[in-house]
Amino acid sequence: MQKCSFTLVNTNLNIISLLFLLFFCLSAYSQQKVEGLIFDKDTKQRIGRVLIINKTSGANVFNNSRGEFALEMSLGDQIIAQREQYFGDTLTYEGQKVLIFNLKKTSIYIDPVTVVGKKSPEQILAERRRDYDKAYKLADPGSYLSVGPTGAGLSINAIYSLFSKEAKNARRLTKYFEREYEENIVDMRFSKELVKSVIGLEGEPLDNFMVRYRPSYDFVSLATHYQMVNYIKSKYQYFKFVPYIKPLPDLNKIDISNND
Fold first, then answer.
1. What is the pLDDT along the chain (260 residues), one digit of tens a residue?
2. What does pTM read for this prediction?
3. Were 119 and a residue from 11, 80, 123, 185 both cysteine, which residue would form a disulfide, CB within 3.0 to 4.6 Å?
């Protein structure tokens, strides 16, 4: 009788131990809402519109514009972050208070030709040449030598066109169009979209950066995309110290009303 009682007590203890172990496991692996943040790996700026998926449970949520999210997860769950133009990233939840993702951009190149409704600098210049054909002809009258029945000589019409007031005005106008073309090339290569994608600036700081570190046409016309990106990153290192200082007005503008 005592042996049977001892066996019963021992069995009850085993059941209690098993239940306690099961309760402990369930508590350890029970889901809890965990907060997280998502950053751009290169610019260190927070990024929004990222889809966060708990691969283990299937739960998912989009983060907000501040890069913040909250999602139910348990220890050992695999959490995936996905967004267009970024490589996806997967983390395993190991009890962190805050889950941090650092996403890498797939590409920072933006093809300006794909912008719908926006004319290229070449198209604008071609329109200027077509609309102001007379000015271009006056600005460049052609050869100063003429060939006639008596032989070669100076072209009086070409010389007159070269020194006439109308020709001077035409040269100023075509010079203005050339400068406009160069500025349009700079705008195309050094665009707000590109700068924003490289260093993450927005609003007034972005506007200040665009003016303060606008590159020259000579640099832009020769630089590769890789060199443009490096240029933006290098200037940003200086910009971070004084981001809100507004640049002085640009005085280097062509005035087509001035005399030669």
1. 555 554 444 555 456 555 555 544 554 456 799 999 999 998 888 888 888 988 888 888 889 988 999 999 999 999 999 887 788 899 999 999 999 999 998 754 444 444 445 778 888 888 888 887 877 777 775 544 444 454 444 444 554 455 566 777 777 778 888 888 899 999 999 999 999 999 999 888 898 999 999 999 999 989 999 999 999 999 999 898 876 665 554 444 444 444 44
2. 0.45
3. 123
* Tokens linked to 113: 């030709």
Chain-centre distance for alpha carbon 36? 24
Element (H, E) at 80: strand 78-82
Instruction: Write down all domains in the chain, each with its CATH number in brackets.
Output: 33-105 (2.60.40.1120), 117-189 (no CATH), 191-246 (no CATH)
